[in-house]
Amino acid sequence: MLVNFVYSILNYPLSKFVNIAMSKKVMIVEDDKMLCRIFEMFLTDLGYEVTGFFPDGDSAIACCMENHPDVILMDIHLKGDKTGFETAKIILEKFDIPIIYLTGDNREDTIKETIFSNIYGYLLKPTTKIVLNTAIEFAYHRHRFDQSMRKT
Predict the structure, then answer these.
(1) How many whole angstroms separate alpha carbon 89 and alpha carbon 96?
(2) pLDDT tens digits, one per residue of 132-150
(3) With a cut of 50, which residues of the chain have pLDDT below it?
(4) How far apart are CA 74 and CA 101, in angstroms?
(5) Which of 19, 29, 44, 126 could pair with 74 in a Cys bridge, judged by C-beta atoms 3.0 to 4.6 Å apart?
(6) Which CATH number among 3.40.50.2300, 3.40.50.300, 3.20.20.70, 3.20.20.450 corresponds to the domain 25-151?
(7) What is the dihedral of CA 128, 108, 56, 46, to 10 degrees?
(8) How far apart (Å, rounded) are the C-alpha atoms in residues 137 and 135?
């Protein structure tokens, strides 16, 4: 299955990669306001539309009902009663939106828990604009590929 995905990306028309960020909506689920502003600056510079910042799982889930983002950047440790893991599981089940964990937590148990979740990326903070862009594009296109495979 991964071979099919790589093959489809390699044979993707070059014109599709021009302005690839355009019109993609990205939600940020992060409880650090300063980091949210930095990510917003990165994403805006790259041409993405930021749908909002959410410090907790419940507000992120509510936003998904109203404004279906194309990709979500999710911190693992959030304010409120839901972790990023719990929030991601609900969003994936209800809305089928690709999620990239963006966290400062590199503990082995956290990474193991991530491996067994249906997630499209795991980035350690701090990150760069280029790494963030690559992760978003990979998650978005991998998710579309997965959707097309489920339909067949």
Answers:
(1) 10
(2) 999 999 999 999 999 998 8
(3) 2-3, 6-7, 9, 13-19
(4) 5
(5) 29
(6) 3.40.50.2300
(7) 20
(8) 6
